[in-house]
Amino acid sequence: MNLTLKIWRQKDASAKGQMVDYKVNDISEHMSFLEMMDVLNEQLVNTGEEPVAFDHDCREGICGMCSLYINGEAHGPDRGITTCQLHMRMFKDGDTITIEPWRAAAFPVIKDLVVDRMAFERIQQAGGYISVNTSGNTQDANSLPISKHAADEAMDAATCIGCGACVATCKNSSAMLFVGAKVSQYALLPQGQVEAADRVQNMVAQMDLEGFGNCTNTGACEVECPKGISLDNIARMNRELMKAAIK
Amino acid sequence: MALDSRVPKGPIKDKWTDYKNKINLVNPANKRHIDIIVVGTGLAGGSAAATLAELGYNVKAFAYQDSPRRAHSIAAQGGINAAKNYQGDGDSTYRLFYDTVKGGDYRSREANVYRLAEVSANIIDQCVAQGVPFARDYGGLLDNRSFGGVLVSRTFYAKGQTGQQLLLGAYSAMNRQIARGKIEMFNRHEMLDVVKIDGKARGIIARNLITGEIERHSAHAVVVATGGYGNVYFLSTNAMGSNVTAAWKIHKKGAFFANPCYTQIHPTCIPRSGDYQSKLTLMSESLRNDGRIWVPKNIDDVKAIRDGSKKPTDLSEDERDYYLERRYPAFGNLVPRDVASRAAKERCDAGYGVNATGEAVYLDFAAAIDRYGREQAKIHNIANASDAKIYELGQAIVEAKYGNLFQMYEKIVDQDPYKTPMMIYPAVHYTMGGVWVDYNLMTTVPGLYCIGEANFSDHGANRLGASALMQGLADGYFVLPYTIGDYLADDIRTGKIPTDTKEFDEVEKEVKDKIDFFVNNKGTKSVDYFHKKLGKVMWDKCGMSRNEKGLKEAMVEIKAIREEFWKDVSVPGGSNEMNPELEKAGRVADFLELGELFAKDALTREESCGGHFREESAEEDGPQKGEAKRNDKGFAFVSAWEYKGAPADAVLHKEELEFKDIELKQRSYK
Predict the structure, then answer these.
(1) Which of A133, A149, B26, B559 has its CA 20 to 30 A from that of B613?
(2) Closest C-alpha to B53, from B477, B447, B453, B437
């Protein structure tokens, strides 16, 4: 198929960006979206132009590096996947595809489609851990049974890949699904209880400091999340925060 | 220079404990005067950085991605082995040690493997304490699954995302130390060379991938944890950015490179579909617990399937060749990876491949769905359940076990694996070879360490499933943090290492010159053009089966591609900005050198062992006819290569392997 691409080009963080049109031909429907981008970049390199910078790495939907806003949707027009798992069979010959970076004040553009997600790092550093040193004599893993239900629910929250689609898709640029997922994972496990109050307060404080917006329960984040992280995690985070406040 | 593996004396069971009791330690007050650089922050690097910082050292950690959480350890699916014996099925430290040495086809260092098995149980305890949500059964205890090449269930897992959860565990431990100021994290930075002072590793030159700035970083020791070099094949299951640069640069500065030809070709990957393909996707080995692998018995059926006139589900049981069950009745579909891969290649080479490219076999879940469905019907007291009901019940079980993998397959191939068998084919997955290290995990350069997949030590010529995660975390959490103290104990009075010295000047100049060359070369061909060309030579001549003629040709061809690369490569953009093409150019330049050493190593090893199959060395008759033939008399050694100016001139040093606790046997899975 032959396609027209409208892509955000921006030289660096301080430069003014703009949408630029490109044409790519003979795209196979079996290609992934990023392989289509490879074709474009190969084309640009061969004509001496600078290729489009975009983040990507594992190309199997787990590293969370890829981050394109395609036709107005985070990770494009399919559900439960990242951009690298989006296939060209979702498009048809003659389509015009608009490709932008994540848009959020807390995610400044570095170049073209690459954004800076260090705000997520700082939130994790504020409390996204259980304080346990490495030693050869932590207690035996089976000495503390954990109900399968809680373990499974913690796992569902823990599958967050930190891509930022939730922020990009939220009209308020809220990071509450991301933060809620981490808070929930530990809140559901006995190991996480000791620091639960400090954790949620510190992570939420950092989240606010980074300039992410608030949650107004539109649920768009859950829809666009490649890992299907549930909105319940935001509710749990709010409960944890409330609990911590009245402690 | 003679290789000294520094394996402690004494019985294998006591070596590690005795050694830990005797090695030098650095007192806590002195640790804060010592800096350590950790390059790479996957399972090995991340766990090492966190643990070293907990101990009190000042750690500087480097990752080329925008966060340590994105390292490719995250993509490991199936699980992590540990000799916990929670299932009571006879597992023990010795058995895990034995399985790993046998699975590695007797080409690993016994003492290292025993230590790995010994600390494996601690890893699970540590991860659970960190909040890693491993799968549990209804009693609340940890669940296990079984993996290829072993007869016990010792694999711990978190759905099909075990690597992700373990990496996020190490990442959380790092975050705690970053918050405490004990780890200084350098995201979007790439190490481009190591700096040696008086023969010791004392720092690195790194490039800030956002600004293009070249930076000097000094330390008392440098740890390289940068993963494997599978991307030398262009197509592999590695991440796009996975590269050999750090490992290769330290090789060129004196670290020996061991067994580069030991590559794992994983049997269950999604087959390639076209020339545009940028990477291959793995389907977890755990699928072989329930999936049966087959191709049609009759070549006419193969043709009918390829032209679409027949579907795989049209073939009756009699018309299918479950070739692993036929050839290896004892292990069946759970033979080790190298054996399963070669068997798939054998069938496809014989013309029985089931897709258009002729490079695919079936992985079929129909029998498992039926078996689980009948079991469920019994459990739920459904008498005379219809076939449709049995299917429905069975499908639910398979979905609970492998749902995310089935979904991934469907998204890529656009076929429903619950209804039609999956198509799979082997793909490059893991490299057992790597930088040579001693028992302390130190390379042949003092103060320079190498851990995780980047080193060579534990898996011999073939790695068993669920052992990569185990090794990465063992090295990072439990081994390196002890052994590095032995070296650093001599450095407590050294003081800060200055970076304004001629050693740093020189290495920085080398790095800058190379970058200037790339951006000014203005050739006519893209970096990918050369990478793909290299990959094709590697796959055709250094792939699942190798022979003398092909390997000699490969050496010549790779050298020619390399020369053309340096003449004609085109790298648009500048050096003082984010420039992904420039990053790729540097990485491919190193792959083009490694590839040649790889072929040379494979040529020198005139035996078949593990993932390295030499056509000249196969059993000629008897029940093992056609199987790999190892040569313990001639080749029970580690090939450690010393760099001498060009890959082809590398000099071989042999570390003879001694097997005192395990009898060398032919690896039979029949």
Answers:
(1) B559
(2) B477
Task: Please state, in angstroms and rounded to a whole number, the distance separating the CA atoms of residues B205 and B151.
Answer: 47
- Rounded to two decimals, what is the model's pTM? 0.97
- In three-state secondary structure terms, B145 is strand
* Helix, strand, coil abundance in chain B, percent, nearest 5: 45, 15, 40
* Orientation angle between helical segments B527-541 and B548-568, nearest 10 degrees: 180
Q: Alpha-carbon torsion B338, B340, B344, B346, what sign?
A: positive
Short-list A148, A37, A50, A40, CA closest to A86: A37
Q: Which of A221, A226, A131 is nearest to A179 (CA)?
A: A221
End-to-end CA separation in angstroms for chain B: 43
Secondary structure class of B190 (helix, strand, coil): strand
Tell me if ipTM is over 0.95.
yes
Do residues B420 and B311 make contact, with C-beta atoms less than 8 angstroms apart? yes
**For each successive 10 residues of chain A (247 residues), what is the average pLDDT?**
98 96 96 96 93 97 96 96 96 98 97 98 98 91 96 97 98 98 98 97 98 96 97 98 93
Short-list A67, A52, A176, CA closest to A112: A52
The two three-digit tokens of residue B575, written as one number: 């050096």
CB B402 within 8 A of CB B240: no
Q: What is the CA radius of gyration of chain A?
A: 20
Instruction: Single out the residue of A16, A112, A6, A11 nearest to residue A56, CA to CA.
Output: A112
The letter for the amino acid at B536 is K
Compute the nearest-CA separation of B229 from chain A (Å): 14
Interface of A with B in 134-163 (CB under 8 A): 134-142, 144-148, 151-152, 154-155, 158-159, 161-162
Q: Which of residues 14-73 of A touch B (CB under 8 A)?
A: 28, 30-32, 34-35, 38-39, 42, 44-46, 48-51, 53, 55-65
CB B145 within 8 A of CB B160: no
